[in-house]
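Think of the structure tokens as a kind of shorthand, similar to the way a musician reads notation: each symbol stands for something richer, in this case the local conformation of the backbone. In the example below we present two proteins back to back. Begin with the first one, reading the sequence and then the tokens, and try to describe in your own words what changes along the chain.
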Amino acid sequence: MITIAGIGPGDSQLRVYGVESCLADADVVVGSVRQLDTLKIDQNKRMKLPKLSDLREYVNNHLSLNIILLASGDPLMYGIGTWAINNFGRENVRILPGISSIQYCFHRFGLSENDTFFTSSHGRKPDFDFLLMHQQVGMVTDDEIGPYEIAAEIRRRHQHRMIYVGEDLSYPTEKLSIFDETNVENRKYKLNVVIIKNA
């Protein structure tokens, strides 16, 4: 059995009840160094997240162990939960939900999530013609398609939108910014979520 534990956007106070007891019972906890350090996982339990092909092989060879795989945010919102179900079968996977970074970002800006299209630009090129048909979009971004690139795509289509950017959400370095398509700063953004909203 493998458990995918959603640990929320970062702050321990935003973790869903049950994650701590799940971690206490684990034989092995798999995650990024940042996740493992944040949760203070014992050295004898921790395993740095390997390539997914290696992780698949490890889990398949150790299904008798209580393996916990950490997921930032919510495992089934552009997270590793879907990968786990597809690779190990629903009967071998338990999912502990978490607060997604997108959900948290909406709350920090005081914006309703109703009728929002949720997506991610991680490792993919979004269809901006399709995205901008929506009144509101919540998007997890990456280094390739971030706030500045999104604003450029909006300008290219001669449209107007408000762009809300949340960086390092729930961490002490959290930064919240509000732009429109004309004034998004051309800089490197930390881990971030972008909300695109019709003005």
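Once you have a description of the first chain, move to the second and do the same.
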Amino acid sequence: MSVTVKWGRERLSFALPARDTPLKALRQSLQEYTQIQDFKLIHKGAVLNDNNATLAQYHIVPGSVIVLLPTARAADAPIVSDREPEPAPAVGLTTEESALLTTIHTELATVRSSLTPELNDLLASPEPHDKKQYLRLGELLLQSLLRLDALAPQREWEHARTARKEAVREVQALLDTLDDTIAARKAAGVH
């Protein structure tokens, strides 16, 4: 008997402890596995905030799906993934590759500074939201993903190719989290 933890595009399977186990035990297992210290857990569209509450109190049963969303290290910092692409060193790069890297990092910085905090606010709120908020945020994330996808690094530009791949992965994970939350809230009758 296990639960599935969605972490970006990854699907992790964890053995389900006894139902009277506090959430902090599951959180500790996830911290050890992912090496991420600060994250939110979301189940059926609700953020799991009380680490002392039991899995039964959160209605976590075999087959449950939990979303793991990394959070900021500081309260006022934008939320970033622990798998943040590192800026490539300027040594040995062509002017064109450097310009492309700048474009990739600028797009990702925009997502992190404006869309990620908005997504986290939306996910953290237990109250229903106007469907337009979900659609708007989904559309903005999709536009960012399409802009990143349209960038075409040349085959020999390894730094730009890696940065683009990681940026696409991060934005796609945010979009997946939004889609999963919408589906979970719809299934739970919360719109």
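Compare your description with these statements about the second chain. DSSP finds four helices and five strands in the chain.
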